[in-house]
Design goal:
- The protein is built from seven helices and six strands.
- The protein is of the alpha+beta class and 213 residues long.
- The strands form two sheets. It has a four-stranded antiparallel β-sheet, covered by helices on one side. A two-stranded antiparallel ribbon has the order 1-2.
- A hairpin with a 5-residue loop joins strand 1 and strand 2.
- The relative contact order is 0.16.
- Bound molecules: zinc ion.
């Protein structure tokens, strides 16, 4: 049996869960319109969502961000730092578990802030910020427009460590970030949004994407 060092109530690797099973948690993926398993999210439904939110029509072209594929399968990685159950693809989940265990051996604690996010979840995050009075341009520098977030892929995680404010650039100054810079590549994880990245996304030292071992 594998143990996932994420803390929280799902400490043991208890087998795979299907996307359908996850639907009960509200964490999961598709609305009726989003494309089939493994496909990119349905482009016309994404366009409709973007129109509703006021995302500029040339968003994809202008940022160079690709539409993300919806994963066929997600597995639980246990609870995040806020106690919310999170999911990744099986491969990304295994790699993350291994990376977290190896960091722990070096005395570094890596904690999950966010992992898989559905298109609907992304829409809710953006609507909340719009309701707070932020403009869509401000918001999409911090949160990718629905359909374009790497979190839809089930391969991206936001990480933090005790003592750091989650999802803040100060994470760059932590031992955890130094460890990730040195070792994450060995587990297949890559920093997606370095400083001055070409996508116009803010520097995100906490955001790592599994790209395969
Ligand atoms: Zn992220």
């Amino acid at each position: 049996m594998r143990r996932l060092p994420f803390g929280g109530r799902t400490a043991e690797w208890s087998g795979r869960r299907t996307v359908e099973a996850n639907a009960r948690t509200g964490t999961v993926p598709r609305n009726g319109q989003a494309g089939g398993s493994g496909d990119s999210v349905n482009e016309s439904s994404i366009q409709a969502i973007h129109r509703e939110l006021g995302v500029p029509e040339d968003y994809g072209r202008r940022t160079g961000l690709p539409l993300q594929a919806i994963p066929d399968e997600l597995v639980s990685i246990g609870d995040d730092v806020s106690g919310r159950e999170r999911f990744l693809t099986p491969d990304a989940a295994s790699a993350l578990a291994e990376m977290i265990a190896n960091a722990a051996v070096d005395g570094v604690v890596l904690q999950v802030v966010s992992a898989f996010r559905s298109v609907e979840y992304q829409v809710r995050l953006i609507k909340r910020k719009l309701a707070e009075g932020q403009t869509i341009d401000e918001i999409t520098r911090v949160l990718a427009a629905p359909g374009f977030s790497e979190h839809h892929s089930g391969c991206a995680v936001d990480l933090t460590t005790p003592g750091a404010q989650p999802v803040e650039q100060e994470f760059e100054g932590t031992d955890a970030f130094a460890w990730l810079r040195a070792h994450a590549g060995r587990f297949g994880f890559v920093l997606s949004y370095p400083r001055d990245n070409p996508y116009g996304v803010i520097y995100e030292p906490w955001h790592w994407r599994y790209r395969g071992g």
